[in-house]
Amino acid sequence: MAACPLSRVHVRPLMARCPHSPSSAGAGAGAASALAARSGTGRWGPGAVVGCATRARYASCRASRIARVSSILLIVASLPDSNAGRSTAMAPTSSEPRTARGPPAAQLSYCDPVARSSAARASSGVSTASQRILRSAATQPSASPQRIALTLGIEEKFDHVLQFTRMYHEKMKACVPLPRIEVKSGPVQENVQQGDRVNLLDFPAPLLHEKDGGRYLGTGHLVITKDPDSEWVNVGTYRIMAQERDTAAIYIGPGKHGSIHKEKYFEKHKPMPVNVVLGGDPLDWFAASCPVPAGVSEFDFAGGLRGAPTQVIRSDITGLPYPADAEIVLEGEIRPGELREEGPFGEWPGYYASPRSLEPFIRVHRVLHRHNPILSCANPARPPHTLTLLRAITRSAHVWEELEQAGVPEIRGVWSHEPGPRQFTVVSIKQRYPGHVKQAGLIASQCFSGGYQNRFTIVVDDDIDPTRIDDVVWALSTRCDPESGIDIQRRCWSSSLDPMIHPDSKVWLNSRAVIEACRPYEWRDKFPEVAETSPELRNRVLARYGRAFFGLH
Ligand SMILES: Cc1cc2nc3c(=O)[nH]c(=O)nc-3n(C[C@H](O)[C@H](O)[C@H](O)COP(=O)(O)O)c2cc1C
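Above are the sequence and the flavin mononucleotide SMILES. Below is the predicted complex in structure-token form.
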């Protein structure tokens, strides 16, 4: 009897020691040490140096690659070394029929010994693989600013998430996109599947949520397209569902750059060439999921953040670039008029928001992959989850930047709260003139980085920490007059993932509120004084009576 294909798929965020770059203990060292201690393999001994040099290129060493990828993404699994070098002769190793449920178990192996011991536990009947995946997806540890800093190469210390957001904002502002450079070859070309030998079902696409309509190969990935009218190469993350051996459905939200490219090709009745990168330097993925303006390639943005250009190979099939150090690359096209069923998928708002529907799909003409490639994924679901912090930090920094670009002065902080990283944004300002608050709110709620599927934008004074929900609710409850302080905007940019849009609606438009929760500018000097203990008195009382005096433990 065939083993459950999922029984060999393992989802695990982990840090691994890089034997080749024993520098920079970095974030996650504790987690990795704990793993090392549990693995009992001696490969990661207690106190082992974890991670690779933060500014290093995505390396050739596998442990180093695992360490890099797992700083912000989940590792799913990989093909075994036995696949290595099969080059153009990727004949099936098993006579079992391959279904969309996944590849024959014999085709899969694991990226680390800890995973192997999990497999042993699973085969001994402790739990089914799908239970393990769901549990793992539900209990994955939260991402941390430190892990994100590791990916971004930010080495300065910080003690507040807003401080880190500001650091990323500064880095992004100073970032001059570095044009990618073309190279002739790279490790991703180690194995090739072409024509009839293409088989996406060789890869362990995970079923991330119980009611997903299929197995999603692409969640922590790059989708590369080109504007047909210019040299602009865009890179986005748009979910990809494995279908048949050479087709995969793709969902691109309205207004996303990949969608605009597609519309342009289809208007000319032409297929859109596309490359998909499954696994690789997480900095490339980070850039792909950021709201980089139209006309700028995320490859070049990533190069600027990295301080070294992204090295790419130009595909002779699609004419599009892909990173030379990628793990797996799919080269293909999306044809006009061709649609297949896709979804539903447990999405970032926390719902199976859009029903199964007809979406374009990619015809895959060639697959390239490294020996023993690492397939990474991201797992959105009911928040908070690993992605929410990352999304909160990037969205906040990009909205902050766009406010400054629009000339709005005295922005003291922007925070897109984790449970609704696009939908609940707080902007803290030092009020300087009448109308300043409204200006900040309207721009934050409509700018490129903040406009998509936004719902509430709240503007608060500079004594409010926008990341502290208690502070924000206090400002809302005491400095907002609902009658005059809430503006509703109608017919705004949303998507089929918005759970508040009726399923029968054919138009994805929403309304949104811009809320002024600041002392009214014109009588701010007469606004009641805040009743709070001064830090000096508080410290004296603390020293004398202890924390219990304040009801603290
Ligand atoms: C894990 C993850 C999954 C995503 N999935 C999708 C998706 O399926 N469709 C989509 O339109 N955007 C998706 N996004 C959001 C886009 O990647 C993001 O908006 C990006 O900035 C789009 O790039 P673009 O501005 O070049 O279109 C996802 C983001 C992340 C982080």
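The chain has 15 helices and 19 strands.
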